[in-house]
Amino acid sequence: MKKLVFLISFFYAAGLVSGGGWTQAAEKFPSKPITFIVPLEAGGGGDIQTRPLAARIAEILGQPVMVVNKPGAGSSIGYRAIHDAKADGYTIGIGMATVVANKLQGLLPYDFREFTMLGAFQIAVPSVVAATKGQRNFKTMQEAIDFARAHPGEVSIASGGKGQTWWIGCMEFQMLTKAKFNVIPQEGAGGYSIAQVAGGHTDLGILGLAEGKSQIDAGNARLLATFGDRRPFAFPNVPTLKELGYDVKVCSLVSAIGPPHMPKEVVEPLVKAIAIAAKEPDYRKFLEERNNTISLYLDPEEQFRKYLEQREVFRAILDKAGLLKEK
User: Fold this and answer.
1) What pLDDT does residue 24 have?
2) Which residues contact 282 (CB under 8 A, 6 or more apart)?
3) Nearest 5 degrees, angle CA 214-CA 220-CA 222?
């Protein structure tokens, strides 16, 4: 009998029998590297903005956080990889406006409501840039709009891939300006669009400022206007579309998301680390100076509410464009 009691006590102490002993002996999260999926190509705005955040999260948690790019299908490939991963916290990723819009367009059978919210860290807005080496050389936004109205379908404009946020922004831009553009969706996000503009292959492009800034600085593209409520930090003389009379609403809440039903003991340390990293002055300065973004932090509940708001905006735009697929 004494021997049996000894063995049971030993098993509990070693964590081999379920109960309080197992809880104490369980590995503390995280105990191995974390994969952070970016559903965009390397060098895109979402990628540029995520990497320094991921590096800081790694320092806070004491484990490597490896950024893995999974672009394609309007970011649906990356979202599927996040959604279908084990809910153990070792695979998470970023969610953008496409995590809202893809279901509306029939690109995914689920949206943000099927993911675990981990906190948002910025709102990104697109910009309109013009080629300086192409057939046309638009100097102002209104000049480009007026020409497009007078010559329907002649002004080409590169956008993100069909279904991506900047493509939706392009649809809104076209509707509000009442101009007919030759919209040319790219295979990926802004990195592809700025290559088209800088090479003079399209007249205009709608993309994140993060992807376009180097080409603008080099004189290969000209920033004409931005979406959003304020002028970009790095280009204070460039107007917003709202200043020009076009009430654009498309923006992209950029946040951290995980697979469905992640347990509390995994979610809490991730949310805490993301909040610390997102609020740090160096990261906020990085976003403000390099991108036309609004640096902010939203906790998971606020993040969810913001995505609900975005859903209504995108639904209205897609419905007017005849592209709404969700019943």
Assistant:
1) 39
2) none
3) 85
